[in-house]
Amino acid sequence: MPVFAWEGRTRAGEVKKGTMEADAEPEVQSRLRAQGITLSKARKKAKDIQIKLPFGGRIKEKDIVVFTRQFATMIDAGLPIVQCLDILASQTPNKEFGKMLADVKAHVEQGATLAEAMRKQPKAFNDLFVNLVQAGEVGGILDTILGRLATYIEKATKLKSQVKGAMVYPISILCVAVLVVIVLLWKVIPVFQNMFKDFGGGALPKPTQIVIDISNAFVDHAFLIVGGITALVVGFSAALRTKQGRAIFDKFILKTPVIGPVLRKVAVARFTRTMGTLLSSGVAILDAMEIVARTAGNVVIHDAIMYARARISEGKSMAEPLSETRVFPPMVVQMIGVGEQTGAMDTMLQKIADFYEDEVDVAVSAMTKLMEPLMMVFLGGIVGGLIIAMYLPIFEMAGNIKAG
């Protein structure tokens, strides 16, 4: 959208200047007139040429948490919103985030609500954040809402880091195993092959011959193999970007023996935490369900929540359609049913979230302990198998020399 630099006068004759995003000059004029400013002149600004580096400038969850906590404290202390945004924009160490906050401040000065201004920065403020801010503005409890938001983001970040931490070890071992196998097939096994040729001695043991054949195929067709793997990765990524491909993958990952139960608990914890935060902040249940579905991060969970939302709009309770989806554990559905009957749904959801976050902590710890010996056996089996296969002819020669 074009940006106009404008100049105008208030009813008291004071000269005002600023910038505004608008489709055309008449829109600038009408919006300024609504603010009691008569437009004197306006010109379209040239687009700034920005060079974006492939690193840095990313908005981290830590930046959002710190901003939200500080913003809540300032609002609670009675500072105006524009002044808070100005201070926070100048003090944040993330320059990209600082520019976004400055843009939010500019839109608020032009008459937009805080939620409307934040909605224009989707890279920093998602639907959940914006809708909660909107509820806080309407209810006059913006500082309380911001405090809840900061707590929610902190807990969500902790949950995500637990899952990522559990995956670091097996992925690292897998990468080491692949690297070791490549070095053995490319450099080490050809040396043994040449040595066996020099010795003569007839046919090699079957395991040794299989490993040598694999090594020869790898060396001769390395570019083809790399190209095939690259094509598979690109194809898999493209399939994940389609709705059907994503649904198949998400359904499969939830049924995976070790990782699936952990991810299901993560999904339940995220759903209940987000839903509880929205309901306690005064967001309508149907709006809350739609927001939660968009932030689910899993197509299967998303579809289950949207199915429940559709049934709730028809007059059903929340527990009944959630039970029909067979995605959420029976205990969760029962506790939600109790929360509906007692009128303490938000409190019950927060308790479920606390319970499942602890469950995720225990499950991640158990999964990590289980993965360590499994991955060591996997790595030792592959590398050890290759080495034993290459030493079998040497053992046979040694046995023949001893028998002779």
Name its key features.
404 residues, Receptor-associated Protein, 3 domains, 3-stranded antiparallel beta sheet, 6% strand
Model description:
- With 404 residues, the chain is mainly alpha-helical.
- The protein has three domains: 3-44; 61-154, Receptor-associated Protein; 168-404, Up-down Bundle (Receptor-associated Protein).
- It contains 16 helices and three strands.
- It has a three-stranded antiparallel β-sheet with strand order 2-1-3, with helices on one face.
- Helix 6 (127-139) runs antiparallel to helix 7 (142-199).
- It is elongated, with a radius of gyration of 30 Å.
- The model is unreliable at 48-56 (pLDDT under 50).
The number of helical runs is 16
The CATH topology of the largest domain is given as: Receptor-associated Protein
Q: Radius of gyration, Cα only, in angstroms? A: 30 Å
Assign the CATH class of the largest domain.
Mainly Alpha
Average the pLDDT over all residues and give the rounded result. 83
The unreliable regions are 48-56
What pattern of helices and strands is seen along the backbone?
EEHEHHHHHHHHHHHHHHH
Strand percentage lies at 5-15%
How many domains is the backbone divided into?
A: 3
Distance between the termini: 89 Å
The CATH architecture of the largest domain: Up-down Bundle
Helical amount = over 70%
The count of DSSP E runs of length 2 or more, i.e. the number of strands, is 3
Content-based structural category: mainly alpha
Major β-sheet annotation? 3 strands, antiparallel
Shape: elongated
User: Which strands sit side by side, in order, in the main sheet?
Assistant: 2-1-3
CATH superfamily of the largest domain: Type II secretion system (T2SS), domain F
